[in-house]
Amino acid sequence: MSNPYRSHTCNDLRATHAGQTVRLAGWIHNKRDLGGVLFIDLRDHYGITQIVIPPTAGFQDTLSHLPKETVISVHGLVRPRPEGTVNPNISTGEVELDVQGYDLLGSCQPLPMNVFPEDHTPEETRLKYRFLDLRRTKLHQTVMLRAKVISSIRRRMIELGFQEFQTPILTSSSPEGARDFLVPSRLYPGEFYALPQAPQQFKQLLMVSGFDRYFQIAPCFRDEDGRADRTPGEFYQLDVEMSFVTQDDVFAAIEKLMIPLFTEFKAEWPINATPEGAFVRIPYKESMLRFGTDKPDMRIPFEISDLTPLFAKSEFKAFAGKTVRAFAVPQAFDQPRSWFDNLQEEAKKLGAPGLAYVKAEAMLSPESTGGYGIKLSGPVSKFLEKDPEVYAGLVALIAASTAYDPANKLSYLDRISPTVIFFSADANETKAAKVLGAMRVKIAEQLNLIEKNVFKFAWIVDYPMFELHEETKAVEFSHNPFSMPQGGLEALEKQDPLTIYAYQYDLVCNGYEVASGAIRNHRPEIMYKAFALAGHDQTVVDTEFAGMINAFKYGAPPHGGIAPGIDRIVMLLADEHSIREVIAFPMAQNGRDLLMNAPSPVSEKQLKEVHLTIRKPVPKV
RNA sequence: GGAGCCAUAGCUCAAUUGGUUAGAGCGCCUCCCUGUCACGGAGGAGGUUGCGGGUUCGAGCCCCGUUGGCUCCGCCA
Questions:
Q1: Phi–psi pair at A199, nearest 5 degrees
Q2: Distance from residue A544 (CA) to nucleotide B21 (C1'), in Å?
Q3: Beta strand A305-306 with A323-328: parallel, antiparallel or unpaired?
Q4: Domains with residue ranges and CATH for chain A
Q5: Cα A418–chain centre separation
Q6: Are A482 and A530 in contact (CB under 8 A)?
Q7: Are A153 and A257 contacting, i.e. CB atoms less than 8 angstroms apart?
Q8: Which nucleotides along chain B are within 7 A of a protein C-beta?
Q9: pLDDT of A349-382, one tens digit each?
Q10: Model confidence over A435-470: pLDDT tens digits?
């Protein structure tokens, strides 16, 4: 009846247990052999207990030679630690176990990495021996945090009136979006299932079926390459869909989830929500201008300004007639030349011709305008000084970017602190914006200007419904083809497609896209029209989205939803910068599982069963 | 598909411009030590410098290729 391995966990014993005979089981965390007495820290999931093996015990020498991470079970007498030897760092530190006997439950070979102490270890080793890495306190607790976050999300979603559903894992390939993972069919030679990129169509069908409020912690599969914040292959979404809602209703529901959730796990980090509990909303176009990205990190204290009009007729050929964006960073003023050179290289890697900058500081200029002015220096300063209009524009930018209190009657000169203005110019507006957006983050990281211990959320709204294909110049969907265009059918019929916005939105936090969603297009006639504008006729919709468009013809409610990324939420709450730190068994960046050796070849028999022959790529000569 | 960075003992790192026998800490092994908790002390084993080629009197260091990992671009409706 009693458990053969343990009567208590390694976090149970307190002074009140003194005198009891107990049994503990766990890993040998650390050993201290003092010659006479032997101390072993025994560790399990719950904690650490010090066990003591006296010299009189016949097995002391054997235990002393068991390597770290051996699994043992010990029994003995709980006793208070002698005066002055209490360890306040562990919760069981008032007591120790006087061991009377032990069982060896799992022996341990020489370790490829230390579990304790938690030395820095290359990620390759950590991924290959993930089961050891997961024993270490840091990762063990992150994985526990993830478990608690998911549990909290489930509880909160149910409290908010949502129901959890399952949807198929083996489904059909969808022509839009990322590359699919395919699963060959045994019963239907030459046909394939696809793993879902998201349960998108299923959750919409659940709304058509009248279920009203759906959620699921859903695995999503996309055959795309990894990044620091994106796993290759698979990830988890909190998939959400609601009927009879507007965009505002979806926002309100998610705000009611996210703010309490983030507060539960990081109470000490402020969240930039209104007193009513709403996140700021930023239109997509505005975000691209102010931050050069649609996932702005608003912890960075400087923003981008548009200087295009200033240079419209400039003689400075590098800027003239192009989209010119700029930001000022006072903290960069004292950086060495090599630092600026390095930034140039970074900008070039992003496809920019370079990164123009000019140093600016206040000066007394008795000769010219009114006794003060801005002195410019640096590689392009002479081009910028020449044009009075450009010069005035830069002065305005500097004044605006320099922190000062307007009520304080400081002189103009005092308000201007030395600063550096960085420029990006490109004939392509998007490219000019994106390059400077990337440099904004890079510079803020390098100069340590990103505000710490804070969550800055924003809704990015009003995504364009359509955009021009870069090469063909054809109109195509810019995001989700299932989104409802703002203005409905009338907008599609009368407006220039490129001016139509979609009810499509992202939630961003600290520079990460944490959720993406839309109010869906549930009206077949609007769907056909939207696809027609993107160059697809009705048969394309009817064949490729047959299940959904068909359902919409039998009474579909207006509906919309969103899908927050679970991995990224945990990443933010764990204050980690690599998504692999919040996943128990992540793949390496190249999509390989170093622990399980996936992907791996399969037998000829297995291939035959699913009617496949392998066509290997021809090696390059 | 492309670019950059990294690879030295089981692990973390060192090794001046290319120059003697490639070092240290942790871990491991042996021994000493009865109150430690990152215990302490003495000694020892452990290396084809990821792999293949090249330059050189001489390569851990320079060059080319390759493998693996990371970061980024493309990709991510």
A1: -80, 35
A2: 72
A3: antiparallel
A4: 15-106 (2.40.50.140), 141-265+459-582 (3.30.930.10), 300-450 (3.30.1360.30)
A5: 35
A6: no
A7: yes
A8: 1, 3, 10-13, 25-30, 32-40, 68-77
A9: 787 888 889 998 876 554 555 445 678 888 888 8
A10: 999 999 999 988 889 999 999 999 999 999 998 877
